[in-house]
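Example complex used in Figure S2.
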Amino acid sequence: MNVPLSYYLILSAIVFTTGVVGVLIRRNIIIILLSIELMLNATNINFVAFSYYLQNIAGQVFVFFALTVAAAEVAVGLAIIIALYRTKASINVDDFQLLKW
Amino acid sequence: MTFNLTLSGSDLLLLLPEMVLTAWLCVVLTVDFVMPRLPKDRLAYLSVGGLGVVLATLVWFELEGITGTLFAHMFVVDRMALFFKIFIVGATLLVILVSMDYVRRFRFFRGEYYFLVLMSALGMMFMASANDLLSVFITLEFSTFGFYVLVAYLRDDVASNEAGLKFFILGVFAAGLLAYGISLVFGETGKLVFSDLARAEPTPGLIIGYLLIFAALGFKIGAVPFHSWIPDTYHGAPTPVTAFLSIAPKGAAFAILLRMLFVSLATLKPVWALLLVFASILSMTYGNIVAIAQRNIKRLLAYSGIAQIGNILIGLAAGTKMGSDAILFYLLTYLFSNLGAFAIVVAVGNLINSDEIEDYNGLNRRSPFMAFAMLVFLLSLAGVPPLAGFIGKLYIFLAAINEGLYTLIVVGLINIVISMYYYLVVVKKMYINEPADPSPLRISAPMKAVVYAGLAGTLVLGIYPQPFIDWVVAATLMFSNLPGPAASMPPAILPFGG
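Predicted assembly (599 residues):
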């Protein structure tokens, strides 16, 4: 059974939009981080689907790098969040309003 | 498509500067680890020495004309890549010298600071060589990871943490947009290398993909409407990191923008030129108007930086060989003026522990040298002859006039007047107002070296720009087949051109 390419693209578009909306409306930093992961995983779905349909390995190579980048991102991001939590005891973005003009 | 990874010696030669820097940053990290009692100043000098070696290899490449591509055209070494690498390594070198006094303030991880600065520089060197969308994504993230950590480096300072958080969330969000955009472009064309993308027909998917990619690159350079992270991040970050962030990544991102717009998208020039005109007008106007209201010198320089990016976008909007020359030259002038101004801000901040513009009152009484240097740097940023900024702006405007972008020029000229106002407010405070505390301030030796380098660069580029103009014209020869007048700088128009 062969799933049409458009199914994958619609799925990835939905996942990506969920991620973007999540970043924009959620206030918990961990949820924002999760939403960003969704955005990157939508990219991976796209790449694997395109790679299969175009018979081009470059897409799958990109997925490996995107996974690596996502992992590194979480490592750095969680470190920053822990540092913040130590000073402010909060992970709600609304509590970080110090810098304003 | 297969990746041929058999490397010969001559291929590896192209990677020599990066390999030297990689080895060196391992050395810096190891030395810091095995000799914990070593004064951290030594680590700074060790890093500067390594960067000096990298700079020497780059200059050797430049003089010998060593160019080529690697890894199925993913990595390219050409004159433009070499220009940007020299730019980045030079900026990193000066930033490390600027950081030395500041690093003593850190309670933890003083040695790792230099390692992270070098690592970001390495990422940016790869950015200058990125020649396909995969390497754009990886190198952009590689260079930004170091910055996420550096911005949040003052672990006990809420402002620094908050700046790090904002920078991180927006930066990673931009990375998500970039990756998704790349996936759409890949899906529509099946290609990733810039020159292969040039022949693609504009389909809706391709256009959305490119828009997402340019939104992400807009985040990197901080052009309006993607500027929201700039003021907060610049304000909260440790000041030397702010200086680094305001120059080196901008240069590297412009290398990518130039390659993408001028190589992959040359045929769609009318479309992107129009978008860039809007981005440029918005960046200049927004940056300059909001800068007037600032009380903190770092925020002032952040908004002035947004406006300067708007100026550089004029050259990109012109979309010609001359426009690309002007961008490279403008970045050089920006390097010296902006880094010089930040060096003074770091020096003053170290001595009086404040970044408020009010505290610059009467700086001339307290340290005539620093006040004079700041005056020169601010006037250069404003574009006053005979300083570097003037030639930079003139060059950019000439490139735009050749393309008939008169609206952009008018807005640019009005903005010069606005920017003059807030730069001169700082100058007035330094020279006319009375200091609250008239005790003299003494600037340290490494800082003084950077300020002298900035002054020398600002004056030489302003008074005798010809060799540098020849350099940037040679660096962008690859763009000489672009549509539009492929002009080099007409020397007669330059009043101070040797």
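Residues 19 and 46 of chain A are 15 Å apart (CA to CA). Residues 5-92 of chain A form a domain with the Helix Hairpins fold (CATH 1.10.287.3510).
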